[in-house]
Amino acid sequence: MVSQDYTVKNPTGIHARPATMLVQLCNGLPDQVMITTDKGKSVNPKNILSVLMGGMSKGTQIHIEVTGESEEDSLKLVMDLLESFTE
Predict the structure, then answer these.
(1) Does 15 participate in catalysis according to the annotation?
(2) Fewer CB within 10 Å: N-end or C-end of the chain?
(3) Among 52, 26, 25, 24, which residue's Cα sits nearest to residue 37?
(4) Which domains, from first to last, does the chain contain?
(5) What is the DSSP secondary structure assignment for residue 31, as one 8-state letter?
(6) What is the mean pLDDT of residues 5-33?
(7) What pLDDT is stored for residue 56 in this prediction?
(8) Catalytic: which of 4, 6, 12, 15?
(9) pLDDT per residue over 30-63, tens digit each?
């Protein structure tokens, strides 16, 4: 398992469009990904409703955990995607 903390920087948070992109990426990964918010909510990034209900607005601290054979590569892809959100 690998993990990393991240602070949501997107001014509009992880709303519909970024959430859809995150779900599409995670569904294409061979590893298990789990996100926990600073409010203790568990978010399954392979489920759009879970991501949207996570309430990840700008400034939210999240903890990303990835488990699997290519976990380091998968974590990098998730982090790169989160960093690319600039709306």
Answers:
(1) yes
(2) C
(3) 52
(4) 2-84 (3.30.1340.10)
(5) S
(6) 97
(7) 97
(8) 15
(9) 999 999 999 999 999 999 999 999 999 999 999 9
